[in-house]
Design goal:
It is a single chain. About 30% of the residues lie in helices and about 15% in strands. It is α/β, with parallel strands linked by helices and about 325 residues long. It has a twelve-stranded mixed beta sheet. The longest helix is centred in the middle third of the chain and has 14 residues. It binds S-adenosylmethionine and iron/sulfur cluster. The site of S-adenosylmethionine has 22 residues, from strand 3, strand 5 and helix 10.
């Protein structure tokens, strides 16, 4: 099997594929309520184009593909895309990050089509607050979606929680406590100052170290979990007696780039070497001009080489070319 390493020796094996920039929610730290510029439909990669790009990536040594958005379940025919991707030999792990709203409807079909597991974004356990954060979502739909995912075997289901001071940081202990129950894995993410997230730059960021201290004060000491597969920039721990894991993703306060193992493909066919940089390499134009596989591989190699050693959030202007809803997290 081929393999890809970047200039700093990091193995790059994980491709996040944003299939749409549209979403059925409007989380306050991600999208404005209205007026967001959308990618024109003709610029969005067709499913057969995505399948081809992923096949080339897998031949180069990528083994994990995660579908994201916008909201991936909001794109029509998503189960067909999953089925086609799951057939690619060498793709070991096909997963999805979703807000969970439509998951109860699709979980069974996704599992049958070959999806392995899902991450669900959930920032609060309070219905009224959920509505406020997402602007119109129903918490109940997400909880039902999670149950459906587990019943369909899309395991483990990991919960992603963006923590924002004054918005939901008073719930970190309640969310962490969930991991004492079977099948709950929760990851806390520092809010990043991209797009709408910029409203919470500075004081709104709750450092992972602070979240961790609050959890330990309430629930006991955390033990590090080693060797979590494909962990990337997350660090994993367990509460005393817990089956589930607690993860911390600290893009703002810690050097999380050392473990970066990914490239991103946007729905308009750009390869992004780094989440926190405006660097974008156009794949769509050559793809649509009839490029052969070797030309596509060359573009992947360029993107891997262009991966910076680390981000520069502290010293440089925050990347502004794309909102998080186009990057896909
Ligand atoms: N719609 C899907 C969802 O919400 O899971 C997938 C796309 S969403 C952009 C992917 C992840 O990015 C979510 O977990 C979301 O919470 C996170 N996210 C969005 N804006 C963020 C920000 N400003 N800082 C940190 N995480 C953010
Ligand atoms: Fe949509 Fe996900 Fe962004 Fe929320 S975080 S607005 S669900 S893309």
């Amino acid at each position: 099997m081929a393999s890809c390493s970047d200039t700093y020796g990091r193995p790059i094996q994980y491709l996040r594929v944003s299939v749409t920039d549209r979403c059925n929610l409007r989380c306050v730290y991600c999208m404005p309520e209205e007026g967001i510029p959308l990618i024109p439909r003709e610029d969005v990669l067709r499913y057969e184009e995505i399948v081809r790009v992923v096949r080339v990536a897998v031949e180069m040594g990528f083994v994990h593909v995660r579908l994201t958005g916008g909201e991936p379940l909001a794109r029509k025919g998503i189960v067909d895309l999953v089925r086609e991707l799951a057939r690619i030999p060498g793709l070991d792990d096909l997963s999805m990050t979703t807000n969970g709203i439509l998951l109860a409807r699709y979980a069974e079909d996704l599992a049958r089509a070959g999806l392995r597991r899902v991450n669900i974004s959930l920032d609060t356990l309070r219905p009224d607050r959920f509505r406020r954060i997402t602007r119109w979502g129903r918490l109940e739909d997400v909880l039902e979606g999670r149950e459906a995912a587990l019943a369909a075997g899309l395991r483990p289901v990991k919960i992603n929680t963006v923590v924002v001071r004054g918005l939901n940081d008073d719930e970190v202990v309640d969310l962490a406590r969930l991991t004492l129950q079977p099948d709950w894995h929760v990851r806390f993410i520092e809010v990043m100052p991209l797009g709408e997230g910029a409203h919470w730059a500075g004081d709104g960021v709750v450092p992972s170290a602070e979240i961790r201290a609050r959890i330990e004060a309430a629930l006991g000491p955390l033990t590090a979990v080693r060797g979590e597969a494909g962990a990337g920039p997350a660090r994993y721990y367990r509460l005393p007696g817990a089956e589930g894991t607690l993860g911390f993703i600290s893009p703002v306060t810690e050097h999380f780039c050392g473990g970066c193992n990914r490239l991103r493909l946007t729905s308009d066919g750009r390869l992004l070497p780094c989440l926190l940089s405006d660097l974008a390499i156009d794949l769509r134009t050559v793809l649509r001009a009839g490029a052969d596989d070797e030309t596509l591989r060359e573009i992947f190699r360029r993107a891997v080489v262009a991966k910076p050693r680390g981000h520069h959030l502290a010293e440089e202007p925050v990347p502004a070319a794309r909102p998080m809803s186009q990057i896909g997290g």
